[in-house]
Amino acid sequence: xxxxxIDALRAERQHVLDLIESLSDEEWQLPSDCDGWRVQDVxxxxxxVFVTVxxxxxxxADPPSDDAERNADAAVEERRYWxxxxxxxxxxxxxxxxxxxxxxxxxxxxxxxxxxxxxxGHHPMHLLADALVxxxxxxxxxxxxxxxxxxxxxxxxxxxxxxGPAMTWMLAGLPQMCAEGLSVLDRPVDLVFExxxxxxxxxxxxxxxxxxxxxxxxxxxxxxxxxxHDFVSWGTARRPWRELGVQVHGDEPxxxxxxxxxxxx
Length: 265
Known about the structure:
The chain contains nine helices and seven strands; from the N terminus they run αααααββααββββαβα. By secondary structure, the protein is α+β, with helices and mostly antiparallel strands. The protein is globular, with a radius of gyration of 18 Å.
């Protein structure tokens, strides 16, 4: 189970609350590294996700869609003209309610209940907490706070507490989210992630989805090595993997096809 993700999510929530408290009127309106979203919109998005998780109503794409990003855009647009105070207040309220609800999903039978999450795939409910840790980690460190984002703030922790759940979600979601692009996988590829949250896994061909298996493959066609923190960036297509020091050994052209196909939400 992923009960440790609850501790990570509470820690990430506090980072957001501290950031909200520190933002000037001008900083709320700065463009983030999420295309078309201001700092305020990113926080509104994180708040809207918590509203949904706790069973509340928020805007969805029209016409209806299973595309997570279209639905996220609709929820942000619903909050576009809210005051920054209202956005911050909703985040504080909805996050507290949702995290308590998520804590109740970490034991059977609910933890193992698989639910559809649109184009994110079908996942057991206990992974929802990991997904939100990933969402917070990504938005805070890669979209809001410099160097990726516009806000000059001290670096936030990039440790096992946070990167462990973030990596759990990314590796669990990769086969379904990237199914079309990864259909070219016909030989195993090792993925080695260094630093906090790291470890070794390998991709195995399969139908309809590839599999992510812990440990190295005996017959890997290539080995890809990256820092786990950087994987959050290139694994979501925020930055090209070629620019982040990713090392490839073995069949480099084949590995490049696989890496280019990875785009996790």
